[in-house]
């Protein structure tokens, strides 16, 4: 296909509307190409010279148009957002820009897998918007706020205005616009958790990565440069990705992302424990892991197989520690607020930070809770257990090459949890000031281990070590329902990466099915709504849960996995 036909078919879609007229003018000679499709030999010499001249003119027009498009895009983003602000003695910060999905799909880049030039360095698959629009539940996050349940919640919570504009809801179900002057014309609040929420609402990187004449340079930049100078969040970093997800799926007080006990009482579905590798696959993913990308892309994105050849395994362990850290930070923030509040404000306790099912469970004589015993004073509600469930795996991973370090970290973890228990035991629901101090210290401890991960590779030997460690941990204590789910999800992710054929084994498949029946491990796929029936079924499984039954099934699963791994 002649050059200008290609350009009109592809590039004309990528520039802003006010540039398209230039493309039409640049491609007026398309009909000449069509008439001469049989080749130049059929054309007289004079005609060939005229065609050659027009080819050059067409090409020059296209280059000029592309340059103009890049300039216009720069002007558009500059108009839509304030200029970058430089900190004293530091580089300029990226400028805010609240853009919509249309900005990512209108150019034909992220919504047309057939369009890319295969000779280009492709950092993406060009089908991201299509997957997000048709399958990702985040697409429906804002729509939820217009439903009957949300309206009923607003009534019960005493929200007078439109709940779809309530900051405490929009903070997770959409976008809080901090500066209306930074809103691009493509922005649509009904798009829910869209591209910019995760990748960064900044004009600098949007302009750089989309402008035709700048893309090649952009693709060669390192991840740190893209994030620090241009504002594109480095989601290839598992800690940063897990922290972002946890801000809504656990909570972040500084960002106003908090689900309270009052919200639960009004009808907000319970937030389940999060295991990020499992949750990412259920979205479903609109990206590839670095190990799945071509070698030239791996080099640009700084992928080092010697440090992380098993990315799902790394994500399981990193997200477990991040979940613990973010839970502690949220607990500390709410306890600090409670310690500073007047008694009439009733800011503490915030019951959403406690184990829901310590209170909300059937009373049974000789129950598994009585067999397990209680860490603190009997009858006192305790903090949620699931964020701590997989933290011993992080300790195990760091200590694989250094047993002394492992023992030290394991002892520190026990001490941190004892300090938290003592703070909760100081008075009913805990002494807010003491709880805040203990929780902050626990969060800081988690940060130290995350730094250790940089020198602890996630390879096959590490994954096998983790699987064995999970087996031992599951026998040490009776796990509550949410903690058992963490073990089930983590095992499926790690063992599945070690041996993709694991589920093909009949015994393993049977044990996994039993585990799913006990714990409801299978999450609703894509945009399937969490219905009342789903919640009812989940609560029934929770009510009927027996830790001893889980332990037997999990042990069987572990044994099958280790046998198959040894055969490989």
Give structural notes.
With 568 residues, the chain is mainly α. It folds into two domains: 3-76, no CATH class; 235-567, no CATH class. The protein is 58% helix and 0% strand. It is built from 30 helices and no strands. The protein has helices spanning 3-9, 11-14, 20-26, 30-35, 45-80, 102-105, 128-135, 141-144, 148-157, 167-173, 195-199, 203-210, 215-220, 223-230, 238-249, 261-266, 276-282, 295-300, 311-340, 356-359, 368-372, 386-389, 391-399, 403-425, 432-452, 460-476, 481-498, 506-519, 532-544, 547-567. Helix 3 packs antiparallel against helix 5 (45-80), helix 19 (311-340) packs antiparallel against helix 25 (432-452) and helix 26 runs antiparallel to helix 30 (547-567). The longest helix is centred in the first third of the chain and has 36 residues, at 45-80. The chain is globular, with a radius of gyration of 28 Å. It starts with a helix and ends with a helix. Mean pLDDT is 81; it is low at 1-48 and 59-90.
């Amino acid at each position: 296909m002649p050059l200008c036909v290609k350009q009109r078919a592809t590039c004309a879609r990528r520039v802003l509307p006010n540039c398209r007229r230039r493309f039409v003018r640049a491609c007026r000679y398309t009909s000449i190409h069509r008439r001469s499709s049989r080749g130049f030999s059929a054309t007289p010499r004079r005609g060939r010279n005229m065609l050659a001249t027009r080819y050059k003119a067409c090409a020059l027009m296209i280059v000029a148009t592309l340059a103009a498009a890049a300039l216009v895009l720069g002007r558009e983003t500059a108009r839509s957002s304030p200029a970058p602000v430089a900190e004293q003695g530091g580089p300029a910060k990226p400028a805010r820009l609240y853009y919509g999905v249309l900005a990512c799909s209108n150019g034909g880049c992220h919504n047309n897998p057939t369009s890319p030039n295969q000779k280009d360095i492709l950092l993406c698959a060009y089908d991201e918007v299509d997957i997000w629009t048709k399958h990702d539940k985040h697409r429906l996050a804002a729509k939820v706020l217009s439903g009957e349940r949300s309206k009923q919640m607003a009534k019960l919570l005493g929200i007078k205005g439109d709940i779809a504009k309530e900051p405490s809801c929009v903070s997770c179900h959409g976008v809080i616009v901090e500066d209306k002057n930074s809103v691009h014309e493509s922005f649509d609040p009904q798009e829910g958790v869209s591209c910019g929420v995760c990748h960064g609402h900044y004009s600098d990187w949007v302009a750089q990565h989309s402008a035709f004449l700048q893309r090649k340079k952009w693709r060669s930049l390192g991840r740190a440069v893209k994030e620090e100078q241009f504002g594109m969040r480095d989601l290839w970093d598992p800690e940063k990705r897990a922290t972002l997800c946890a801000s809504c799926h656990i909570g972040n007080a500084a960002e106003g992302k908090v689900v309270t006990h009052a919200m639960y009482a009004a009808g907000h579905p319970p937030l389940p424990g999060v295991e990020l590798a499992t949750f990412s696959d259920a979205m479903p993913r609109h990206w590839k892991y670095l190990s799945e990308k071509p070698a030239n892309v791996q080099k640009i994105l700084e992928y080092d197989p010697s440090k992380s050849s098993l990315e799902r395994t790394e994500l399981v362990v990193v997200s477990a520690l991040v979940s613990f850290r973010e839970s502690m930070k949220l607990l500390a923030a709410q306890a600090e607020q409670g310690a500073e509040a007047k008694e009439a404000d009733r800011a503490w306790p915030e019951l959403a930070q406690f184990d829901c099912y310590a209170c909300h469970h059937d009373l049974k004589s000789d129950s598994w809770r009585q067999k397990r015993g209680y860490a603190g004073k009997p009858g006192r509600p305790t903090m949620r257990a699931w964020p701590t469930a997989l933290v011993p795996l992080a300790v195990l991973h760091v200590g694989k090459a250094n047993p002394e370090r492992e023992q030290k970290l394991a002892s520190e973890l026990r001490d941190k949890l004892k300090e938290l228990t003592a703070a909760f035991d100081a008075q009913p629901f805990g002494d807010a000031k003491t709880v805040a101090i203990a929780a902050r210290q626990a969060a800081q401890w988690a940060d130290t281990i995350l730094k250790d991960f940089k020198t602890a590779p996630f390879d096959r030997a590490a994954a096998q070590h983790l699987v064995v460690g999970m087996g031992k941990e599951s026998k040490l204590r009776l796990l509550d329902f949410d903690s058992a789910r963490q073990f089930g999800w983590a095992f499926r992710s790690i063992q599945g990466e070690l041996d993709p054929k694991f589920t093909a084994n009949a015994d393993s498949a049977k044990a996994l099915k039993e585990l799913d029946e006990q714990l409801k491990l299978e999450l609703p796929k894509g945009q399937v709504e969490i219905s009342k029936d789903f919640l009812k079924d989940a609560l029934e499984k929770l009510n009927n849960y027996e830790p001893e039954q889980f332990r037997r099934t999990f042990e069987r699963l572990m044994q099958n996995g280790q046998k198959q791994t040894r055969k490989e």
